[in-house]
Automatic annotation (TrEMBL):
Sequence ranges assigned to domain RNA polymerase sigma-70 region in this UniProt record: 18-83
Record bears the keyword Transcription regulation: yes
Entry superkingdom: Bacteria
InterPro entries cross-referenced by the UniProt entry: RNA_pol_sigma-70-like, RNA_pol_sigma-70_dom, RNA_pol_sigma70_bacteroid, RNA_pol_sigma70_r2, RNA_pol_sigma70_r4_t2, RNA_pol_sigma_r2, RNA_pol_sigma_r3/r4-like, Tscrpt_reg_LuxR_C
The keyword Ligase appears for this protein: no
The protein's name in its UniProt record: RNA polymerase sigma-70 factor
Family: Belongs to the sigma-70 factor family. ECF subfamily.
Residue ranges occupied by any RNA polymerase sigma factor 70 region 4 type domain in the UniProt entry: 113-165
Amino acid sequence: MGLLRYGDSAAFTEIYNRFWDKLFSVAVNKLDGDLELAEELVQDIFLDVWQRRKTLAITGKLSAYLATAMKYKVIDSRIKRKRAKDFLQNAALYPPIADTSTEEQLSFDELRDRLAALVKELPRKCRLVYTLSKEAGFSQKEIARRLNISEKTVESHLSRAMKLLRAGLQHIFIFFLF
């Protein structure tokens, strides 16, 4: 393991050649003859050993470490298979939900465009106050200071803007409800 820790590929190749067949044989037996999955799990173990070579601290025999790693890979594999099987069985019980994301996006785009058009139609001061508040995120106090008007006037402009926008969007909201 010492040479492997320093990235010696010959040491890794030796470990690979020495243990690959044994691990593969154990995996095939534990996985009811699934050769592809057994090979994948063995490869995963060796890939993990190579990737963790600098930090891997094996205190006992390497063969025992690899056997334990294979045991846990097989357990994880069985759990994943069971979950996949359960998922497929449950999915068969429920009809698929229609994907309306494109329709929703188009509706959202229409709503956003309509709102932008309505904002453009607001009276100049009202539009400015609305934009500073809702789009730029300024507080009413900041808007009043920037525009040199009272906070009450800012509140009045915002109230008027919201009333006009609500009225302009009302037909769209009714359309979405039905």
